[in-house]
Structure formats: structure tokens, C-alpha cells
Specification:
Length: 254
């Protein structure tokens, strides 16, 4: 029986603070990897602020339990299985749990019945708290991707997330810069309201790979709100996510 178990790797998507687009990257990265032929699952580990059910258009779908009382992930139309606390509580209900309860919830999501899933993408909550500590100590990700906007404040917090993973011996796959440039739909001019190049410069300084930039794009925001991730199509919004997924796939093949 042991020989039949699927060897499953965990890739953590982290950030030092909220609002940098970590969940959007996680969803689109999982889909882009699935489109490359990988068997991928997505865990929304942001226990207090789950957003993956909305991003994947699966708010009305609830996980079931198998005969061993393990959760059975929800299948999405984008070729990935997914579990989120957002599927286990009423819409809008606050999850007011202390650290140990949040850690136990994470364990139930990771130890679920993932079948033949090879890779789990885990959308971590922002910061370096109990959920992150449970993740790195008990489940030891194969690697971590750090997401940041270009601005200095976000990069300061991103460095804290990097430090947490390094202290736990989790390899850093690389850094992603989100909200990197806004193209005016009228004139085509590109502006940088959050700055530019900060994450790439930080990656170079720290000796990590820079995985790519995701633009501040209205189409990405609209598609995400509608539960239609850009990576599921071949449109303009998919290019940045596909590029990052390709670099992650190469990293996993090393």
C-alpha cells in the first residue's frame, strides 16, 4: 500500500503582507501548471480570508468526506482540485479562531483525499504567523514563491517571509513582482503607480531567481472577480502567469 501512494510535492505561495495578489497568482499558477499536463491541487490556506472559491467560480460547491472521514476536494472546471475554508463556512461568516485551531484546519486541508495529485499549490495567508509555522514545520514545502508589489513597504515585508522559509530550510523558488505597470487603455502609455523593478532588484540582491512580472491590468481584475482566471484562456492576461508557471515547472524538474 505504501508503494502506491502518490509522491506529492508542496509549493507554498507566500508574502509578507496582504493585498499583493498572492491568491490571484496561486489560482492562475495552479491552472497554468495543469494546462502543462501536471496533476495539480490548490489549497486556500488563508483561513481567515479565503478567496479561492470566488477566483475559481466555485462558491456554491462543497467538499464531501470519504469513508475515512477525510475531505474530498472540489473539482473545478479548470482541471484542478481545490479546498478552501470558504467552502466550509457560510458566506460572509467570520472565522474567529485562535492559532491552534487554524493550524488544525490547515492539516485537514493538506491531509485530505487528494487522489493522484502530484503537486499542491498552497495559497498562504499574509505574514509569518501560526499557519505559516505549521506549514513549514509539519509539512515542509518543496519550495516557496514570494509575491510582492514593487514598492519598498511591500518588499520589506517580503523579506520577512523569505527569512521564515530560509530559517525552516525551505528553498526559495524565486520572487514575483505583481502590479508592475499599468497600460492606459486609451493611449497605451505605461505608468508605474507602485514603482517598478523592486522585486527583481531584491531577488538579485538576495541571490534568488526572479520569476516574472504581472501587470496591473483591469482585465485580470475583472476576470478574477468573475471566477474566470486568465490562465485558463490564451488571452493577453495569461502570458505572465504562463511564463511564471514555466519557470516553476523547470525548477521542479531539476
Amino acid at each position: 500500500m505504501t508503494s502506491k501512494r502518490t509522491a506529492r510535492r508542496i509549493i507554498a505561495i507566500g508574502s509578507g503582507k496582504g493585498g499583493v495578489g498572492k491568491s490571484t497568482l496561486s489560482a492562475n499558477l495552479a491552472i497554468a501548471l495543469a494546462r502543462r499536463g501536471l496533476r495539480v491541487g490548490l489549497i486556500d490556506a488563508d483561513i481567515y480570508g479565503p478567496s479561492q472559491p470566488r477566483l475559481l467560480g466555485a462558491e456554491d460547491r462543497k467538499p464531501t468526506a470519504n469513508e475515512h472521514k477525510k475531505l474530498v476536494p472540489v473539482q473545478t472546471e479548470y482541471g484542478i482540485a481545490m479546498l478552501s475554508m470558504g467552502q466550509l463556512v457560510k458566506p460572509g461568516q467570520a472565522i474567529a479562531w485562535r492559532g491552534p485551531m487554524a493550524g488544525n484546519a490547515l492539516g485537514q486541508l493538506i491531509d485530505a483525499d487528494w487522489g493522484d495529485t502530484e503537486t499542491l499549490i498552497i495559497d498562504l495567508p499574509p505574514g509569518t504567523g501560526d499557519v505559516q509555522l505549521t506549514m513549514v514545520q509539519k509539512y515542509k514545502p518543496a519550495g516557496a514563491i514570494i509575491v510582492s508589489t514593487p514598492q519598498d513597504l511591500a518588499l520589506i515585508d517580503a523579506r520577512r517571509a523569505i527569512h521564515l522559509f530560509e530559517e525552516a530550510g525551505v528553498p526559495i523558488v524565486g520572487l514575483v513582482e505583481n502590479m508592475a505597470g499599468y497600460e492606459c487603455p486609451e493611449c497605451g502609455a505605461v505608468s508605474d503607480p507602485f514603482g517598478t523593478g523592486g522585486a527583481e532588484a531584491a531577488a538579485q540582491e538576495l541571490g534568488f531567481d526572479f520569476l516574472g512580472r504581472i501587470p496591473l491590468d483591469l482585465d485580470i481584475r475583472l476576470a478574477s472577480d468573475e471566477g474566470v482566471p486568465p490562465a485558463a484562456s490564451s488571452g493577453k492576461g495569461a502570458d505572465a502567469f504562463n511564463g511564471i508557471a514555466g519557470k516553476l515547472a523547470d525548477w521542479m524538474d531539476r
